[in-house]
Amino acid sequence: MSTFHQLRCMRSFLTVAEHGSFSRAAHALQIGAASVSEHVSSLERHLGVALFHRTTRSLHLTHEGGAYLALCRDVLPRIAETDARIAQGGTSDALSGLLRIDLSDGVDAFLLDAVRAFQARHPAVTIHMLRSQRQFDLAEVHADIAIRSIAPRDRPQDRILSHVLGRSHTAFLAAPAYLERAGTPRRPEDLLAHRCIGYVDPLSGRLWEWYFRGADGQDMALDVPCALALAQGDLRRHAAMAGEGIINDMAHFVAPLVREGRLVRILTDWTVTQPICHLSIHRERHRAPRIAAFIAHLERWFANQPDDPFASGDGVPKP
């Protein structure tokens, strides 16, 4: 098999794997379904292994197919990026290809401006922003990068690189209408007499504790009784804005809502500093030009974020 033909077959195989269908892959590639099928069959004959389990109703990657898919995702974008750089005179900014980023809720909205800025500089890079809450294998969700507000639970054998992006602090918030109706808590213990909106882990069903650190450095964990608990941060924010109760959240995620007057900060002397985001990537992928460029862009973007998005004091109720 010639190298050029193998690359065409690899592209067809990658597209079938990502679309889960030969016909959908053919539509995406704008070629006939018979050509896509022949490309995949040629690749299987060349490799001497089956890449897919095929039935009349389903199409699944084999173990070898999963390994080869990871290779295709690494090699093909590198070739496209190299071609683009050469075509544009070898400039370092000539990046192209598809970048898949899997984010947890809250993180996706917060990073949207960073993604827009990256694409403004690298318009040939296509970005797919996915959302999931659970821990996973990056290959399982077809993502190049995962960014979470919670530290990943990676094992050494997972071959994952992880590091922290930025730091924030916990904010406690409620709608003005709720505070007018129920009063403003002054200490964490006061929350026991209030209606709170908790976070429930979608995997374990466990209601998360609320953590506090006073100005004197005193730490406190409190099992806040929550009349309502939700598994998504954006739903918790909407419930709080509707006057349903008090929430805790990352300061950088909710600062725009405070500036708009839709939420008000409370318990401002009891905040806990923590990472804003945790970035995870396969060890084999972090050198891919578009991925390395995006990570470097994120690091610069976070370095320019304010340490305290509430530094102006907006949204803090008067005692």
Structure description:
The chain has 2 domains: 1-89, Winged helix-like DNA-binding domain superfamily/Winged helix DNA-binding domain (Arc Repressor Mutant, subunit A), CATH 1.10.10.10; 95-319, D-Maltodextrin-Binding Protein, domain 2. It has helices at residues 3-19, 22-29, 33-47, 63-87, 107-121, 176-182, 233-241, 251-259, 289-303, and strands at 52-54, 59-61, 97-103, 125-131, 145-148, 160-174, 196-199, 210-213, 219-222, 226-230, 247-250, 264-266, 273-282. The model is unreliable at 313-319 (pLDDT under 50). Helix content is 38%, strand content 23%. The radius of gyration is 24 Å and the shape is elongated. The strands form 4 sheets. Strands 3, 4, 5, 6, 11, 12 and 13 form a 7-stranded mixed β-sheet that branches. The chain has a two-stranded antiparallel sheet with strand order 1-2. It is built from 9 helices and 13 strands. It has 319 residues and is α/β, with parallel strands linked by helices. The relative contact order is 0.13.
Please outline the helices and strands:
Blueprint: H1 3-19, H2 22-29, H3 33-47, E1 52-54, E2 59-61, H4 63-87, E3 97-103, H5 107-121, E4 125-131, E5 145-148, E6 160-174, H6 176-182, E7 196-199, E8 210-213, E9 219-222, E10 226-230, H7 233-241, E11 247-250, H8 251-259, E12 264-266, E13 273-282, H9 289-303
Parallel strand pairs: 3-4, 3-5, 7-10
Antiparallel strand pairs: 1-2, 5-13, 6-11, 6-12, 6-13, 8-9
